[in-house]
Amino acid sequence: MYGNYRFLTIFVLLVCFFKYGASLYCFTCASAANGPCGIGFSTNDVAPQACKPKENVCLKASSTVLGETLFTRNCGVPEACSLFDECNYCENELCNSSNNVKPKYIIASLISFFLVKFVF
């Protein structure tokens, strides 16, 4: 009986952490705070784009240049965050649409916790 639960647990964890071969899609834009990529961002105004193979995260970043805050949403790598004043990244499809990018792996961590707590 426990063998089935262990198989199911391993399967769920693999599915949570497995990356498919398809490209990641992120919203891609840049504008001032009051522009389409800024504070009033709407997914209806910006079309998602496929990321290049080495771009494994979606970025939402901002920097202040000459007194004006500029926002960008794009595909990239986590290290690119060092180029901005503020930056968040995430690894899910179109995850850079919200004002707050969620911490990565939170769902997989919660599933793992409950499986370990209640199954083993």
Q: What does this entry look like structurally?
A:
The protein is an alpha+beta fold and 120 residues long. The chain has a single domain, classed as CD59, CATH 2.10.60. 25% of the residues lie in helices and 28% in strands. The chain has 2 helices and 6 strands; from the N terminus they run H-E-E-E-E-E-E-H. The strands form 2 sheets. Strands 2-5-4-6 form a 4-stranded antiparallel sheet, with no helix packed on it. A two-stranded antiparallel ribbon has the order 1-3. Helix 1 packs antiparallel against helix 2. The longest helix is centred in the N-terminal third of the chain and has 16 residues. The protein is globular, with a radius of gyration of 18 Å. It starts with a helix and ends with a helix. About 18% of the residues have low confidence. It is found in: Membrane. Keywords: Glycoprotein, GPI-anchor, Lipoprotein, Membrane, Signal, Transmembrane, Transmembrane helix. It is a lipid-anchor; GPI-anchor. It comes from Aquatica leii. InterPro entries: Sleep_regulator (IPR050975), Snake_toxin-like_sf (IPR045860).
